[in-house]
Specification:
By secondary structure, the chain is an alpha+beta fold. It is 38% helix and 21% strand. It folds into two domains: 238 residues, ATPase, nucleotide binding domain (Nucleotidyltransferase, domain 5); 225 residues, ATPase, nucleotide binding domain (Nucleotidyltransferase, domain 5), CATH 3.30.420. The strands form six sheets. It has a seven-stranded mixed beta sheet, with helices on both faces. Strands 3-2-1-6 form a four-stranded mixed beta sheet, sandwiched between helices.
């Protein structure tokens, strides 16, 4: 049996709708729509600027994409939605209460202080297994509690669950994304009461937890005519945290493989059977997030190609101003910049890509220069030098993290799978092989959409419903053979 499903994949900078054509020996993606995901800045009380997601613009764009998909294929078996983690919409009586905040908004700082006053960081890690990130959901919710915003809400839905509600009218909380909130116990699989108390939230604020592969229901009648040609196409929960879906799409062949989901963020880690919650893991800032089929994603968050995209945004702005650079390489020409960076032969600065100063939007080249000045490191001088510095710093961070993962897990890592947008960056993949001293297998680029598609396909019976993740990954390897990078001899 063969058929097709529609994957809605919402990333932090863009979204897409993709048709996945799947059968026992078939896996093929058809890109239907791609659209920008641009945050919006809104003045709030006192005139302070707040960063929000344009959730209504995303809803409109993905609706157009699903309608186009339905016109291309009248027999879509299912729709699944994944997105970035931690952010949510607050609702009352089914209506959205304000625009969802962007995780890079600074308001969560107040929530962080409130939570840590009630639960020390070491206890919080023991209870949640989640690494400290200042924008995790629990800190955002605590900030909403302090501001009184939670008083207006009777439901909180993570972004893909909010989209699912608008598609079906059904409220759920998909478990892999719930595991990124910092409030889910990795031991019991349910909400941790002591964390909820510290946040100032009740378990009733959240919808019932469901597993990837759960049928949520058909499209609402008001949407069926435009999106489904009159049919109530089933909507299926997938690994709705985009990294959970991406890991399904990583063509892992054995336990000696690690993954890097490389995009705006770099998620570097292993798939394990049980959480690894130790003092050493907390000190190294490793996290335990839920995966599909009950697996655990033991990983570390590293600032990823955001460093490059923010730098290019700054350079492009300069190029249109009276202070335009005289560099011969235009910022908007990424291919030329990468080629020039590959030709850099001298040493470049290697900075700490995990430094929290690089998290907010802003002048990334200026921040890199400031980091270098503070640490007595010569700062990059040209744009190719900056690009090479960013990629060398990311590769160095990957190497450190993989070494830590080996120590913390007791596993030997011989192969590193790089998936997502970064898998197309040949220089980054080569530097990663060289600095880690391990074989790098790059691709597929669309691992997140592939994982989304495969979970839907299994639920719809397009592949055997008993298929393991290993058999699904074998299909990925067959359809999308990875590109192999060997480490330079001197680095092994």
């Amino acid at each position: 049996m063969s058929g097709s499903v529609a994957a809605v994949d919402l990333g932090a900078t863009s979204g897409r709708v993709i048709l996945g054509h799947v059968g026992p020996n078939e896996l093929r993606l058809q890109h239907v729509a791609r659209f920008a995901n641009r945050p919006v800045t809104v003045p709030e009380q006192g005139g302070a600027a707040a960063l929000h997601w344009d959730i209504l613009g995303l809803w409109s764009a993905l609706g157009d994409g699903l309608a186009a998909a339905a016109r291309l294929d009248h027999a879509i078996s299912s729709i699944g939605v994944d997105s970035w983690a931690v952010d949510y919409g607050l609702l009352r009586d089914g209506r959205l209460v304000g625009l969802p905040y962007h995780y890079r908004d600074s308001r969560s700082t107040a929530g962080l202080d409130a939570v840590h006053a009630a639960l020390p960081a070491d206890e919080l890690y023991r209870l949640s297994g989640l690494a400290h990130l200042p924008f995790n959901t629990l800190f955002q919710l605590a900030a909403d509690r302090a501001a009184g915003t939670l008083d207006f809400a009777d439901r909180a839905l993570l972004v893909p669950d909010l989209i699912g509600r608008w598609l079906t009218g059904v409220d759920v909380t998909e478990r892999t994304n719930a595991s990124t909130t910092g409030m889910l116990s990795p031991v019991t699989g349910g909400w941790e009461p002591s964390i909820l108390t510290a946040v100032g939230a009740s378990a009733d604020l959240f919808a019932p937890l469901v597993e990837p592969g759960t049928a949520l229901g058909g499209l609402l009648p008001s949407l069926a005519s435009s999106l489904g040609g009159g049919r109530g196409i089933p909507v299926t929960a997938v690994g709705s945290h985009d990294t959970a879906s991406a890991v399904v799409g990583v063509p892992i062949a054995d336990e000696h493989a690690a993954y890097i989901s490389s995009g705006t963020w770099s998620l570097v880690g292993l798939e394990v059977e049980r959480p690894i919650i130790t003092d050493a893991g907390r000190a190294a800032n490793f996290t335990n997030e839920g995966g599909v089929d009950g697996r655990v994603r033991f990983l570390k968050n590293i600032s990823g190609l955001w460093l490059l995209s923010e730098s290019m945004r700054v350079w492009d702005a300069e190029a249109t101003s009276s202070r335009a650079s005289t560099d011969s390489t235009r910022a908007s020409d990424l291919a030329s910049l990468l080629a020039a960076a590959a030709d850099v032969t001298g040493p470049v600065a290697v900075f700490d890509a995990s430094d929290e100063r690089f998290t907010p939007p802003g002048d990334m080249p200026g921040r890199i220069t400031a980091w270098c000045d503070e640490h007595g490191v010569p700062a990059p001088q040209t744009r190719p030098d900056f690009v090479r510095s960013i990629l060398e710093s990311l590769a160095a961070a990957y190497a450190r993290t993989l070494d830590e993962a080996e120590t913390l897990s007791g596993r030997t890592i011989t192969t590193v799978h790089v998936v997502g947008g970064g898998s197309q960056n040949e220089l980054l993949c080569r530097l990663t092989a060289d600095r880690t001293g391990r074989i790098v297998l790059a691709g597929p680029v669309e691992a997140t959409a592939i994982g989304n598609v495969l979970v839907q396909a299994r639920a719809a019976g397009l592949v055997p419903t008993s298929s393991s993740l290993e058999s699904l990954r074998a299909l990925v390897r067959q359809a999308y053979p990875p590109v192999r990078y060997e480490p330079a001899a001197a680095s092994v």
